Every structure is written in structure tokens, then in C-alpha cells.
Amino acid sequence: MDRKIFLLNELARCVADMEDEMVAEVANTYLQEGFNAHEGIMQGLVVGMEKAGELFEQGEYFVPELLICSDAMNVGLSILRPQLVSEDLEENINIVIGVVEGDTHDIGKNLVKIMLETAGFAVHDLGRDVPVEEFVNKAKEVDAQIICMSTLMTTTMDNMKRVIELLKTEGLYGKIKTMIGGAPISQSFADLIGADAYTTNAVEAAKRAKQLVSV
Questions:
Q1: What is the CA radius of gyration of the chain?
Q2: Which residues make Cβ contacts (< 8 Å) with residue 173, sequence separation at least 6?
Q3: pTM, two decimal places
Q4: Residues 47, 130 within the same domain
Q5: What's the domain range around 44?
Q6: Per-residue H/E/C for 126-141
Q7: What is the pLDDT of residues 58-96, one digit of tens each?
Q8: Which of 84, 97, 113, 152 lies at a CB distance of 3.0 to 4.6 Å from 88, suitable for a disulfide?
């Protein structure tokens, strides 16, 4: 097996297996051998965290395990992130992110936040169960270019539409882009409510955010 692929797989495994000490060792080795930090994050650490998320959804992991996996990922990030080169970053671009009102499921949102921060965005996390007005007010306060919204519940999906409608009312629709995601969300729903982007995972969300701000 190619050495780089081996180390990327090890980074992913360490995160998914909650091995925070080992992930530090592997991350340092990865850098010492001259491999790209951004790829180490996106193709190593992120893959491991996504695997942990899958185990959580399957009922094999619970919140404590997921938090330990997140800690392991953060250890790896603390080593790899300082080595990111300027072209991997989006300096001084603000993004507001949160789980819409009525929903408290924030695991996916937290992973997207990590990926956006890794890409260099300034992320303003409103948390979960966020009122419609708070998304827009915060976006105006920090001069955000993107609002990211998530939900895992079909009963709260309409609050995404309400945020977009409020942007239209305040003349900000199009000026502030919107990106949505979550298990019940689809591209057809995004099209229906006028969202600028829909993504299915954290890695895709970071890539899509870069595309939105480059338009």
C-alpha cells in the first residue's frame, strides 16, 4: 500500500477508534514525511469522524463515544491545521451556522462547522434550536456571506424556508447565500425553498461554501 494512503487510513482509524494519543503520533509522522496537511484533514481525520457518525447512527456508538472521537479529531487538527497553505483558506469570510428552531440534533452541524473552520472560514455557531430571526440578525451583525442551516426532523424543515423568506423581506436574499443539510433534506426541497446549496456531508459542505463565495 502507498505510504501516504496508509497514513491517511491510520488518521481515519485513530479518530474512529477514539485513539487521541495515537492520532497525534500519526499526524506528526504524516507531516514529517512531507504530505499535504489539507489532504490529511479532509481525507484522514474527516473520514474517521464520518465513520464515527455512521456508527452513532447505527446505534453502535453513543454520545460519549462520539465526543471522544471529536476530541481525537481535534488533536489531529491542532497538528495539521497550522500547516495549511494560504490557498486552502478563505480569509475574512464569515459564515453563520445553526440547527433550526425546534431541533436539538447538532452532531452533523458540529462536523460541518469543523470542516468550514478547517477551510479557513470564520464560523459563528448559533448552536441548536435557533429562532428564525437569530440567523438573519447574526448574519447582519457579522456581515456573513453564508447562512448554514441543518435539521434532522421533518417537522422543522419549514423553518429553513422561513429564514429564506425573512432574507427576502429584508432585501438580503442573494446577498447572503444559504446552505442547508440534514437527513430529511433533499435537492428538490432546497430548490423549492430557494436555498443556494444543499449538501449531504461535511466535506461537501466546505467545498460548496468555497464555490458560493467565489461566485
A1: 18
A2: 164, 167, 194
A3: 0.75
A4: no
A5: 3-87
A6: CCCCECHHHHHHHHHH
A7: 899 987 898 899 889 989 999 998 887 655 655 679 999
A8: 84
